[in-house]
Design goal:
Number of domains: 1
Strand order of the largest sheet: 1-5-4-3-2
Number of helices: 4
CATH class: Alpha Beta
Helix content: 25-40%
Distance between the termini: 58 Å
Structural class: alpha+beta
Shape: elongated
CATH topology: TATA-Binding Protein
Radius of gyration: 17 Å
CATH superfamily: Fungal kinase associated-1 domain
Strand content: 25-35%
Number of strands: 5
């Protein structure tokens, strides 16, 4: 019985370690949020211009919005840029959850609307699991609010 408990404990610890050290392949996670097919799971948030859920318009050009977004994300010590960047007007970030450090991937593309305005398409999703308790939606909503100032 002790061996079984020890094996179960090791399996749990191994799973927790894997979540933290699993490699993140940019070619898999760096996707265009404007053309992605929404997953069947409930662990994502997707804002796409022209859809039911879309980001607001921002009174700045796409370059300024990309730089502001990048600076905002990277102030979080649990966030890092995986691919792209503000100079590309398209980037993917890894943002880890607070306690267990599960990786969430956030792909964002910045779109110039003309007249000095821009918007973005954003796809934030969990790597592991089937639900996230609304974490990705809440995070994206908070980011839009911060960017709107």
């Amino acid at each position: 019985m002790k061996w079984i408990l020890a094996l179960v404990g090791l399996a749990i610890l191994g799973g927790m370690a894997w979540v933290r050290i699993a490699p993140s392949a940019a070619e898999h996670w760096h996707v265009d949020p404007a053309s992605v097919t929404p997953p069947k799971t409930r662990n994502f948030a997707l804002l796409v211009p022209g859809s039911k859920h879309e980001a607001p318009e921002f009174p700045m050009d796409a370059n300024a919005l990309a730089s502001a977004f990048d600076a905002m994300i990277l102030t979080n010590r649990r966030a890092s840029r995986l691919a792209g960047g503000p100079e590309d007007l398209w980037a993917t970030y890894v943002v880890r959850t607070r306690y267990l450090r599960f990786p969430d991937y956030v792909s964002v593309k910045f779109l110039d609307l003309g007249n000095g305005n821009s918007t973005l398409a954003i796809f934030s999703r969990a790597r592991f699991g089937f639900g996230d308790g609304g974490l990705n939606r809440a995070r994206v909503k908070a980011w839009m609010k911060r960017l709107a100032g």
